[in-house]
Amino acid sequence: MQRQRVTYLAASWCLGYPDEELLERMPLIRSALAEFNGLDRSFGDVLNALTAKPLAEVQAWYVQEFDLSKRHALHLSYWTDGDTRRRGEVLIGFKQVYRNSGMLVNTHGELPDYLPMVLEFAATVDLAAGRELLTRYRPSLEMLRLALVDDSLPHAQVLQAICDTLPGASPTDRQQVMKMAGYGPPTESVGLEPYDPRLLPMQGGQ
């Protein structure tokens, strides 16, 4: 359980916008990860990337890859609902989970399905409820992971570490992600744009 908490909090910090506070936390992050066999290797590349260049350059790179690009969207419901009307209902569901915890969760202006926020919630507020959200949106995590793998970003290893805390093995391709989500194989390959799997054909022509 403690390994999961450390994984989620370290991932939350590493996937968020890099700033001076993150750099100050680096020794703490490395020390905490080293307490668990193999965990430091999952985060090693991204931690090195975050400190390999001046902070301003790292920040500019982060904005380009995560804020301006939909290819690496960090909002879980974006991968399943895109910018549809239904997504508003989904976001309300995230907020309700936070409210049910009895703790005041500061969203800092972010949407409640923002992955670093969900991870921090799981690590520091309610592990069970946070894991339930991550499990429910496992297909989103896997789609993001595959996108990061495609673009050779070190954050892919962090997503893998998150997925490793959840039941079952990670899919090897997007078609397997669709099966994980309970949908049949798409008629054409799924790209990196947000998709709604409910709109894809079901197996057996259902």
TrEMBL record:
* InterPro entries for the chain: DMSO/NO3_reduct_chaperone (IPR020945), NO3_reductase_chaperone_NarJ (IPR003765), TorD-like_sf (IPR036411)
Which Gene Ontology BP terms does the record give?
Answer: chaperone-mediated protein complex assembly; nitrate assimilation
Protein name, please? Respiratory nitrate reductase chaperone NarJ
Q: Where is this region: Disordered?
A: 185-206
Q: Which domain of life is it from?
A: Bacteria
Q: Which UniProt keywords apply?
A: Nitrate assimilation
- The record lists the organism as Crystallibacter crystallopoietes
A GO MF label: unfolded protein binding
